[in-house]
Every structure is written in structure tokens, then in C-alpha cells.
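> example.struct
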């Protein structure tokens, strides 16, 4: 557990400590398993813990066998008494009393499945009631991604400051502009997850071969290729006089905050949101830039296996469904441009 805590930001440590004080003791086993053995992202584990806390809050307030107990007091015997019906009623409570949407319900169900499945594998649970879960049917929107000309506009906004507020313009420096340009170029070019970017160190980059060694989901390492545009923007940032002259707190970190420590995930999200809003794309997040990179790569190569390898998808069918469907408009455009057959 100490290894996990050492890798959290100060804010994450505060949230984690507050949650772990209130959660049952058996949750520590799940946290350790998911972080140390499976390499889940720290932010993901904290989201799990929040969902577990909500579930146990429901249990002590609504389940008869837990009346009068505090969440922290729940034992191995208590969690063994939870049935599939209890889980169903919990979801009904979410939908009726908490008014959650299907996507939130799905996320919380995943967190509960992780908890019960891990405890079952660790022989703390005699049986796992979540195996009876049916797959939730969610009406997903089509892929949201930036078109090529919008990607150019986004990068132009970073260099020029176009569309930013006066306050945002005043807070910019040559160094922060170089960093923001390198960060967003990297995201658009490689399709890296924001959590993967957060963990990047200098040693992960091979600028000669233009490759990055990335620690992805499930603690699996993959090689991601980047272009000359990313190489140029990254080297310009890494060799910036300000960076070379300052005392860097985390010397291995690629992206730095204003205190010259490792830039947080939240910090990266704010940077993307700032420039996306500047060009009128208010729904763009780092994950949408990942989608933009995947779609651009698929439309350039037509090879879904290449896209899956670059993005780190284990199941190629997931990649195919997402990006082949999204690029169907290209087929319609091609047919229209072809014109009449006669």
C-alpha cells in the first residue's frame, strides 16, 4: 500500500486516505491487487473506491442485515451475505433515487464487478454474485473527433493565442506555449491515453527511431510510433532555455507544471479544454484527441490492425467497430464524387 501512496499526487493522496479510512478492510486487498499486480491507473482505482463507498453506503442504509453498522465495520462475513438481488436493488436505487444515466450505471457496475471478482479470486468470497449481471445496452453516440482542418486550427490556436481570453493570454509564456504545443501534438499524433502520457519519462523516448515505450493498461508495455512533427515540437520544448535553466523537481518527467514538477492529469485536461474551447470545440477532451488520432490513422492506412497496435487495443473487434463505422462517411463522399455510372 505504501508503494501505491508514494505514486499519488498530493491531492490524490488526500482523497485516497479519506476513502480508505471509511472503506472496509477487505478493500485494501483489491486496491493492492489492481495497482501492483495489474497496473491499473491511480485515478481509475480512486474512481473505483468512490463507487465502492457509495455501494456500501446504500448497504448500511437499506439492507436489513447491515442496520446499525458503519461502512468501515463491514466484515468478510458481511460481504459474503450480499446477494445478486441486493445488487439489483442497488441499481434500481441509483436509477430511481439518484437519477443516474445509463453510462454512470455501467461504470458503477464495473467497479462493483471488480470488487467482488477480486475478492472471489482471493478466496474472501465464497461466490461472486456479479457473474449473473447481464450486459447493459447503452445507446452510444458516434465517435467524436476533430477533422484534419480542426486539428490544424487547434495547433494554430496554441501558437497564436487566437480565441483565448485576455486572462489566458496574459498567463502564457514562451515556455508554456512550447509545452502545450508539444503535449497536444503528441496526443493528436499518437493517440496515447492521458494516463499513459502522465507516466512518460525521458527514457521512454527514442528520438532516433521516433518510438515511445509506453506502459499501458494491465501493466503491458507497447511501442508507439510518432511523427517528425511530434519530434520537432518535443525537442523544441525539452531544449527550451527556461527548462534548461530551472531546477526541475521531477527530473525524469516530460511535461512540467508551473512549479517545474510533473504536470498532473488534471493539468493536461485543462490545457486541452482551454485550446479546444478557443476554437469553439467545447466537447473535446484528451480522449477525443485519442479518437482523432485513431480515426486519422485508419483513414490514412485502411488497416485496423495498425490502429489497434498504436492505440493499445487488445480486442481488434472493438477498434474495428469504432473506427470503421466512423469513417463510413468517406465511402458516401467517394460514391458522390464518383458520379453517375452512365
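> example.seq
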Amino acid at each position: 500500500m505504501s508503494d501505491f501512496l508514494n505514486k499519488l499526487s498530493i491531492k490524490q493522496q488526500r482523497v485516497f486516505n479519506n476513502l480508505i479510512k471509511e472503506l472496509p478492510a477487505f478493500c485494501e486487498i483489491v486496491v493492492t491487487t489492481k495497482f501492483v499486480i495489474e497496473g491499473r491507473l491511480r485515478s481509475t482505482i480512486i474512481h473505483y473506491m468512490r463507487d465502492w463507498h457509495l455501494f456500501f453506503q446504500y448497504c448500511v442504509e437499506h439492507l436489513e442485515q447491515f442496520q446499525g453498522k458503519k461502512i468501515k465495520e463491514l466484515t468478510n462475513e458481511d460481504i459474503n451475505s450480499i446477494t445478486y438481488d441486493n445488487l439489483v436493488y442497488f441499481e434500481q436505487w441509483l436509477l430511481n433515487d439518484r437519477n443516474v444515466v445509463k453510462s454512470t450505471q455501467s461504470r458503477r457496475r464495473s467497479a462493483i464487478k471488480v470488487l467482488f471478482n477480486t475478492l472471489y479470486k482471493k478466496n474472501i468470497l465464497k461466490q461472486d454474485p456479479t457473474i449473473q449481471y447481464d450486459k447493459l445496452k447503452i445507446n452510444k453516440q458516434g465517435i467524436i473527433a476533430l477533422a484534419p482542418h480542426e486539428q490544424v486550427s487547434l495547433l494554430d490556436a496554441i501558437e497564436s493565442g487566437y480565441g483565448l481570453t485576455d486572462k489566458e493570454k496574459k498567463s502564457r509564456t514562451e515556455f508554456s506555449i512550447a509545452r502545450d504545443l508539444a503535449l497536444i501534438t503528441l496526443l493528436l499524433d499518437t493517440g496515447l491515453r492521458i494516463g499513459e502520457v502522465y507516466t512518460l519519462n525521458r527514457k521512454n523516448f527514442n528520438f532516433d527511431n521516433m518510438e515511445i515505450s509506453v506502459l499501458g493498461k494491465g501493466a503491458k508495455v507497447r511501442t508507439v510510433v510518432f511523427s517528425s512533427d511530434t519530434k520537432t515540437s518535443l525537442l523544441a520544448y525539452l531544449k527550451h532555455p527556461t527548462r534548461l535553466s530551472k531546477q526541475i523537481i521531477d527530473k525524469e518527467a516530460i511535461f512540467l507544471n508551473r512549479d517545474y514538477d510533473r504536470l498532473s492529469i488534471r493539468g493536461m485536461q485543462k490545457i486541452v479544454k482551454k485550446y479546444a474551447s478557443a476554437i469553439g470545440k467545447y466537447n473535446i477532451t484528451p480522449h477525443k484527441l485519442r479518437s482523432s488520432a485513431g480515426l486519422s490513422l485508419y483513414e490514412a492506412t485502411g488497416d485496423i490492425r495498425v490502429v489497434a497496435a498504436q492505440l493499445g487495443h487488445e480486442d481488434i473487434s472493438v477498434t474495428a467497430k469504432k473506427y470503421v463505422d466512423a469513417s463510413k462517411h468517406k465511402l458516401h463522399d467517394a460514391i458522390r464524387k464518383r458520379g453517375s455510372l452512365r
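> remarks
The CA atoms of residues 185 and 229 lie 7 Å apart.
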